[in-house]
Specification:
The chain is built from five helices and two strands; from the N terminus they run H-H-H-E-E-H-H. With 148 residues, it is mainly α. It folds into two domains: 38 residues, no CATH class; 84 residues, no CATH class.
């Protein structure tokens, strides 16, 4: 939706957003307009977008971002034997710095996390409003779709 300059920066209520959305139903968008919209979005990733949260990101979105930009090695970064499938935070600092993350096989990930299981999770401290109830039970179901 294109917003006029006079409305730029205005915070719309949920009702107003819904009404605007309903007003767009059934409108036909020309191929030229679709092409123009696609061109406007091209190359806008990360901090350039208006949805960027920086370090104020949730745990799932952070894992998704790291998976997207940190190349996954062929083998586990600890044992160098098994295929690496888990993205593990190694330092307890949840941010976008790659040195805090490693790809581990399931067994190495479990062995690495085992000594910390009896303590209060640093994930809960860093993400108190997270929907994640038990951070020790993060599994591959929360993985980003393939291709990222």
């Amino acid at each position: 939706m294109k917003v006029s300059k006079s409305l730029k920066g205005t915070i719309f209520t949920e009702e107003r957003k819904r009404n605007i959305s309903l007003g767009q139903i059934g409108k036909i968008i020309s191929e030229a307009a679709k092409k123009k919209m696609a061109e406007a979005k091209r190359g806008k990733t990360g901090a350039i977008t208006n949805r960027w949260k920086g370090e104020d990101v949730g745990i799932k979105a952070l894992h998704h971002w790291v998976r997207k930009y940190l190349q996954q090695p062929e083998l586990c970064e600890f044992c160098n034997r098994n295929k690496s499938i888990d993205l593990a935070n190694m330092t307890g600092v949840y941010n976008r710095e790659f040195h805090n993350w490693k790809y581990l096989c399931k067994s190495c990930h479990i062995d690495y996390d085992r000594p910390r299981r009896h303590k209060r999770s640093y994930k809960q401290e860093q993400f108190p409003n997270s929907a994640l109830k038990d951070p020790d039970k993060v599994n591959s179901a929360n993985k980003a779709p393939s291709g990222y």
